């Protein structure tokens, strides 16, 4: 699918009543997801302020695709790979994150890290980290941001110091289409969120107050998340104004999973199948999660665990001011 075809598809009249069998639903989903990919890439590659269309078009198409997935059956898509979930942040984003934590210029960090951030671990040792960060985590009904819904988030602040604890934590739940009262909340076996938690709640994409508050705080402080590309991919398609703010450099993301992989020497000596860079395993090594405990996989709980763990890692490497 080229850009012209993607634009035509996104602007075409959508009649869900005509999608009455698996074949039609599958074809619609595949075309939607391909168009989202083509449109997103074109929008990001265009010069700032000279994009050929509004990113609203991409978000609207993603919302349309969620409806198609609902009709098909979200549970039946569990083993079908999507293409609009980023696997990692870009080298540019990773370098920007380290520069923000250290209060240095990105060019200075990039000089050591290299253009592909291959030596970012070395750049991490050149200056201490400091300042206040936002911890952020979401729970969703799918791994793919164009197939499901954000149903829970957790957010908290923490000063990067040897003694500060996460504070000002906030958790929120968001609604789902009524069909899930009967079908059950997808991925409940992971996040343990049930219909009772989301019943009567406003869907995330319709909660303007929460959306505006998130954008406001995201623009003020760096945002930490474990596998931040996941949160980034979802917010691109579900939060109005987020993609625009990211493109203009107003939001800085920091991936604590990448931090773990780069500065925790244990990661390289542990078997891959043990998922040593997962938040749960990392937290156990740093003593922020007891051996008999498990990660909650719920927004605010995971935010607090992540912030305490990254602080412990920084303290272990003498990277904090005053440590």
Provide a short characterization of the protein structure:
The chain is α/β, with parallel strands linked by helices and 323 residues long.
Commentary on this structure:
This protein has helices at residues 3-11, 22-45, 56-72, 91-102, 106-113, 120-124, 179-183, 188-191, 195-198, 208-218, 228-238, 242-247, 256-263, 266-269, 279-286, 299-316; strands spanning 132-140, 150-159, 167-173, 223-225, 253-255. The chain has 323 residues and is α/β, with parallel strands linked by helices. The chain folds into two domains: 3-72; 91-316, Nucleotidyltransferase, domain 5. The protein has a five-stranded mixed beta sheet with strand order 3-2-1-4-5. α1 (3-11) crosses α2 (22-45), α2 runs antiparallel to α3 (56-72) and α4 packs across α5. It starts with a helix and ends in a 7-residue tail after the last helix. The model has no long low-confidence stretch (mean pLDDT 92).
Per-chain topology:
Elements: H1 3-11, H2 22-45, H3 56-72, H4 91-102, H5 106-113, H6 120-124, E1 132-140, E2 150-159, E3 167-173, H7 179-183, H8 188-191, H9 195-198, H10 208-218, E4 223-225, H11 228-238, H12 242-247, E5 253-255, H13 256-263, H14 266-269, H15 279-286, H16 299-316
Parallel strand pairs: 1-4, 4-5
Antiparallel strand pairs: 1-2, 2-3
Helix pairs in contact: 1-2, 2-3, 4-5, 15-16
Describe the structure using short key phrases:
alpha/beta; 5-stranded mixed sheet; 48% helix; 2 domains; 323 residues; Nucleotidyltransferase, domain 5; 10% strand; 5 strands
